[in-house]
Design a protein that fits this description.
about 5% strand; 2 domains; single chain; Glutaredoxin; about 55% helix
């Protein structure tokens, strides 16, 4: 399999972490790609030009981290990252949506500032900051489980992205439970091996 990835994308990290946790990383050939450069190989695999994009062993192109992780989960012989049924499934998917939502808001802040030339206190940027704050507060009130699943990986990747791009925001301030959870989950090999630099 071929994975078009970016070293700093929280979504690409989520896919790489899932692949490691599912024992599939040795079957994936990693291709670093900057989506903003529109590399021809990435565009051929995904006309949207987004990372992550996975080309399966039979040539099928999959994109969107949730779809790729579900595919990897389906082909792995390991314990699933996405529970098949019941309350555990919906909880894991809900936590994934929170993690992806934090990543969405963070990336939008970057794009609005970089490409929209907006100041840090522009209303659209402030809105994304408030959304992130509300999600972080929810996670503090209800910290995720301590075992790896699609939700905990998504949240850990989102928090790692905040550390990388918005360290001065101090997301840990006033959130001791979430901070402790993040320190513990970050020791998982799938997350240790994919820390963005």
């Amino acid at each position: 399999m071929k994975l078009f990835s970016s070293a700093t994308s929280p979504y690409a990290r989520k896919v790489r972490a899932c692949a490691i946790a599912l024992g599939l990383d040795d079957r994936i050939e990693l291709h670093q790609a900057s989506a903003f450069d529109d590399p021809p190989a990435l565009l051929e695999a995904n006309p949207l030009g987004k990372v992550p994009t996975l080309v399966t062993e039979d040539g099928l192109s999959l994109f969107d981290s949730a779809v790729i992780c579900e595919y990897l989960d389906a082909i792995s012989p390991e314990i699933p990252m996405i529970p098949a049924t019941g309350a555990a499934r919906w909880l894991a998917l809900r936590i994934q949506a929170i993690g992806d939502g934090i990543s969405d808001a963070s990336l939008m802040r970057i794009q609005l500032k970089r490409f929209g030339a907006l100041p840090d206190d522009a209303p659209l940027i402030e809105r994304q900051k408030r959304a992130t704050t509300r999600m972080l507060d929810q996670l503090e009130a209800e910290p995720p489980d301590t075992h790896l699943d699609i939700g905990t990986i998504a949240v850990a990747c989102a928090l790692g992205f905040l550390d990388l791009r918005f360290a001065s925001d101090g997301w840990r301030d006033g959130r001791p439970m979430l901070s402790a959870w993040f320190e513990r989950i970050s020791t998982e090999p799938a997350l240790e091996r994919t820390v963005p630099v």
